[in-house]
Model the fold of this input.
Amino acid sequence: MRHATLTIIREEHQALAAMLRSLSMLLTQSRREGTAPNFELLRSMLFYIDEFPERLHHTKETQLLFPRLRERCPELVPVLDALDADHEQGERAIRRLEHALLAFEMMGESRRAEFEAAAERYITFYLSHMGTEENLILPAAEAHLLPEDWAEMDTAFESNRDPLTGHEPDDLYRPLFTRILNMAPAPIGLGG
Done:
C-alpha cells in the first residue's frame, strides 16, 4: 500500500540531496575557475535548507513518525535517538554554515577554505542522515505502522509541501524559489 507520508519524505529527500549536491558543485566550479561564488544564490540555498528541511520536514519526522516507530519497533530506538539528535544538531549546523558563508563573503578568500570545509561536512552529514532514514526508518514504518498512524501523518505531511518537489510555493516563499530556480544550475534550477 502506498502512503503519502513516505512519498513526500522521499521526494523531499531527493530535493534536498539535489540542493546539497548543487551547493557542492557551485563551490567546486568557483574554486576551479578562481572566482568568488554567487553569494546571493548560496545564501538563498542555505535559507531554503533552514526553512524547509530543518523547520518543517524534521519537525514532522520527530513529532509524528519517530514516536510511532519507537512504540512499534523498540529495536530502532537507538537509531531514532541518533536521528533526533541529528535534527537538533542540524539547526545549529546550518547557523554555523550561514555564518561561515557570511565570513567568506565579507572577509574574502581568507575564509573560503573554512566555508568550503564546513559546507562539505554539512553535506556529508545530511546525506548520511537521509540514507539512514531511507534504508532503515522508512521500510520499518511501511512494515509496522497502522492505518490510523498513516491517516494522521499523511494529513500533516501534505500540509506544507516543498516547492522543489514540484508543488506551488506559498506566496510568502515564491520570491525565494523564483530566485533559486533562476540562478541555480541544473539539477535544481534553470540558471547557469
User: Anything to note?
Assistant: The chain has a mean pLDDT of 90.
